[in-house]
Amino acid sequence: MTITADGGSPAVGTPRSKRGGGFDPTSLRRQSPRHGERVVMGVLIAAALLSVLVTVGIVLSLLLPAISFFREVSFGEFLFGTRWSPRFSGQESYGVLPLITGTAWTTLIALVIAIPFGLGAAIYLSEYAPSRVRKVLKPVLEVLAGIPSVVYGFFALTFVAPVILNDLLGLDVGTFSVLSAGLVLGIMIIPTVASLSEDAMSAVPDALRHGSMALGANKMRTTLRVVFPAAVSGIAASIVLALSRAVGETMIVALAAGTQARMVGGPTEVGQTMTGFIAQTATGESTPGTLSYNTLFAVGLLLFVITFVINMISIRLVRKFREAY
After folding, report:
1. Can you point out the beta strands (E) in 63-195?
2. Which domains, and CATH codes, for the chain?
3. Where are the beta strands (DSSP E) in the chain?
4. Name one GO cellular component term (predicted).
5. Long-range contacts (CB closer than 8 Å, 24 or more residues apart) made by 285-290
6. Contacts of 325 by beta carbon, 8 Å cutoff, 6+ apart
7. Taking Cα atoms as reference points, which of 165, 155, 157 lies closest to residue 257?
8. CA distances from 94 to 102, 154, 269, 296 (A)
9. b vs e for 145-177, b when ≥16 Cβ sit within 10 Å of the residue's Cβ?
10. What is the spatial distance between Cα 89 and Cα 170, in angstroms, rounded to a whole number?
């Protein structure tokens, strides 16, 4: 039995806070409801539900008209047809492969530009640039991400195609081509690759760098053999995110790639992408509810599925190669 300071014993069942004026944290009870906390929790739940509802709404808005489209056009004709002319009266054809090839060419060219330049910028900013230079270059690099895509489109149309490709390089390229669209699209997504990759490389602990250099490795070997593999999950995520943005970009390809939907066999050819077709048709005179109008939603649904698959691949790559420190 516990003896009090005056030699007596406390009454059985009496809380300590009442016996000697002490504070017993285990005896705390909520004295009044926390209405503010409930309001904040409700707002957070509503925000989470809103994102889910918006996603569901997007899927339904694409799915319902697409179902009407596929009642008249088979999946095989849509996915594997090589002629796309949904608005030619009497000669309608609904093969989406020409739009897919145009999208593939512009995306491939963009990645060829963005990956090496973006990773090079990330390596320099993370491993070599002095702090003063980094504070200047990184914001300047990220300014590119804030330029409206329509400005990039006019840049490709008025400068890249006539001046760089025709005059400087001597290529036989017209005003519109998937090459000029892909080059400018690659410039636009460089900040995505560079910024996210630089963040991933900067998050690698310095202990790994110091250990590598203690074993005799130089700066370049440490960067390529230690830092780069340790940050590979973030780098892979940046590339896949840039890929998703390139696939979904509209204004650059709508202005610079052209409006002729045909099978694209080379980078100097004119082609139309899926987003370019959507932009062109959505501002046209198609009557809602008609088959030609529903092609918008069929192509949009295909684009949604492609970007969804790309994002799922990104998530799996991040989980597979994630490093824990």
Report:
1. 84-85, 93-94
2. 93-324 (1.10.3720.10)
3. 84-85, 93-94
4. plasma membrane
5. 286/87
6. 204, 205
7. 157
8. 15, 30, 21, 11
9. eeeebeebbebbbeebbeeebbeeeeeebeebb
10. 40
110 class by beta-carbon count within 10 Å (0-12 exposed, 13-18 middle, 19+ buried)? buried
324 three-state secondary structure: coil
Phi and psi for 89 in degrees, rounded to 5? Answer: -65, 125
d(CA 249, CA 204): 32
Scanning the structure block, which residue is given the tokens 């990330």?
122
| Assigned token pair, 166 | 């025709």
- Identity (one letter) of the amino acid at 171? L
239's tokens: 């590339």
pLDDT in tens, the chain (325 residues): 444 445 555 544 444 444 445 555 555 555 556 777 888 888 999 999 998 999 888 888 888 888 988 888 888 888 888 888 887 766 778 889 999 999 999 999 999 999 999 999 999 998 888 888 888 888 888 788 888 889 998 899 889 888 888 888 888 888 888 999 999 999 999 999 998 899 889 888 888 888 888 888 888 888 888 888 888 888 888 898 899 889 988 889 988 888 888 888 888 888 889 998 888 887 766 677 788 888 889 999 999 899 888 888 878 877 776 655 5
pTM of the predicted model as reported, rounded to 2 decimal places: 0.80
10 Å Cβ neighbour count for 275? Answer: 24
